[in-house]
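S., here's the first fold you wanted:
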Amino acid sequence: MNFNRFLVQGFVGCVVMDFNRMSFSHFSDKSVADINGIQSISQCGFEEFKYPAWISNAVIQIGSNRENITNLNHILQCLQNLLCKHIVIDLDYKSTLHDVALILEALNNYNIHETMFLMNYCDEFYSDEFADLILSSNRFSSMVIFESPSDKNLENIVFYSKQSKKYTNLLKNKREFGCTPMVFVESKKYHSYFNRKMFINNNGEISNAPESPEVYGKIDSFKTQEQLLELVQSSAFQKLWHVIKESTDVCCDCEYRYMCVDNRIPLCRGDNEWYHEIECNYNPYIGKWQNENGYKTLAECGIRSGANGFVIDIEKRNSIRTR
């Protein structure tokens, strides 16, 4: 028996998660998968998810008003008080070399382990002065510069991309799935995207994530550590933290449920039943991705999910599967 390989079964397919190799094998038909000697995921003996910080990761958006650059020291101090160690700084405007230098200088004063920059290209970001600034700093982990003239890689730290910045992408890609004990254990008890996340938009307004419509005040209105902690500990702010895929329509039947970090907003139908208005681009009832031959939508397979309930027309679904 291999105690580091676990079987996760979906409606028709299954995956074998290998935590030693941080990889997984997918079988489109669970009835023919070779699973001898592999434990069911229900037998997994990992401890319950524990994390020492109230906020594990935060996104700071900075817009053309540059308000969050002015307030950056206050923002970083607030996040440090919450023990946040991972942040994304989204420069959502035509930023300059001077702006980047100011942010890096501010980061020197705080114990943030990992900082990622997202920003759009300007000529200054392709200069010797920029390279000197970046290579002399140890205050960030990576930068992605979008709308660049070409795709380039600077020392595996700065990545120039011709693509446009798209912060929120609702399409899933199995190449991005994280087959790690950390993601698995968190997914068993919490939502692996919304749990312990914070978003501060370019006006300083706080929400759980960039996709979240609810705003809980402006960051500069929280003058003490206790005030911000009270917000983060509130049931309103944590509303989506405890939504798990086992309680969510369609996701509960998906073999990828313990490795997929899903940023779609889950909606509550009542009695801890959840659903999504936006359909995933993988259909676990036929084991097909949207770009594959034979893909059908949930409705075409006889599956209805929404505020009025969750229904699977087995006869119609079987007729699709056997064609």
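And the second, which I think is the more interesting of the pair:
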Amino acid sequence: MKITRWMLFSLLFSLLLTACTGVVQGVVYGDIDSSGEIGSLEGPLEGVSVQLAGCGATVSQLTGADGAFDFQEVPDGTCAVQVSKGCWQFFHSFPDLGYPVPVASDPDLPTSIGVLMSPTCGIVRGRIYRDLNGNGIEDDVDTPLEGVTVDLTDCGPALSQVTAPDGFFYFDGLPDGTCHVAVSKAGWSFSNSFPNVGYPIPVASDATLPTSFGILMSPNTGIVQGVVYGDLDGDGVQDEDEVPLAGVEVHLDDCGPSLMQTTADDGAFEFTNLPVGSCTLQTIKAGWGFSNSFPNVGYPIPVASAPTLPTAIGILMSPIADAIDEGTERAAGFEEFALSVDLIYPGLCTPNRVSFEVKAFHPSGIRSVTLFFKVEDPGGEQSPWNAGVSMPFMGDDYYLLTQTADQLLGSSDFDEATVLYQFVLEPSDGEFIRSQVFRNLAIDRCGQAPPPPQATATPDKSGPTPTPTKQP
């Protein structure tokens, strides 16, 4: 192709035009406390008119939610940026170059800047958090609270907002003076604010009162929530590749009617409006067994709205071998039993730690292994069988449960006793399988050391065997 003189001239003109134009861009932020810095509750400012003048025709843009402006093809030279928004004024820029802010395509002047604006009218903003244990302190598990009605009164017309999932609220354009903030949500009550200045919370544009703050709300009734994870290697620790587990039945008992939820892909569960007190959690999924919880407070897991018990927990479940190895005959049932007693913290209230361990197998998979026990005093009087305690799965077909002497003695008035206990296997498909009844454990109540267990388990065929509370 032959290049004509006109084509060459057009190309040179285009390159010259490109080289002689610049870009002016930046972000406008709301500096609510006029500190010259962007705080945790301060961010981009929407609805600001940004005007560029002094280099060609005056042009303007209106910032969106990201607070950004971007002027393209600005003539070479020095321009000036000005900002305006009702109830706001220019406060600072970074870099700090004065006002109007000089900007251009000149390398010695900025073409990308940040602008801070401070309020001239009252602004009230903040975030609401769950105070799950009601201690008035924002703990790690206290997340933002959605659906809270925030009412602002006593400074002009009454205003109201409902918080989104981020728990955030924001009122601006308020007259100078003191307003009051009140919060409401069914099943929740005001717990505290930071800073703590009373309730309803006094807020305004007055510098001596907060205009940016956090609020805590505590549940009037119990909340139990958490996430179930797959513990693939059965080590009781959540590793990086172990993700939430779907399809887990989470059962909540012992505080009102029994409740059940099935986890979705996020592994989460949440029970609300529970009676104040202590409940218990158990998890069930075919081919999986309980592995651990964090915090680790035993199993079934005690949970409630009481500050001394967890209301937000993580649960680990590990896979159970659910098939016979090819070419290997293996009978369903119990294969190994072990019992150990530790004498710890002599003289304190729970010195006697007893560990029951059993190895169990079923070709269809195991839904649960439960330990039933009762106690017999030296005179032969026996307590009723307990309701059964589910044994956590430890991997490699082993189940382990640890109890104290006082837990085994339960509500009986015995100070010393022999423990009779039996293991019950509930398969994923099929009939319950019961072990023999053992009576090889002698215990004393709080502070007294039991004798070491016998080397081998001694079956007891005289007493009744327990009946599991649930049938497959």
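Why I say that: The chain has four domains: 19-119, 123-219, 222-319, 333-444. The longest strand covers residues 416-427.

Talk tomorrow,
H.
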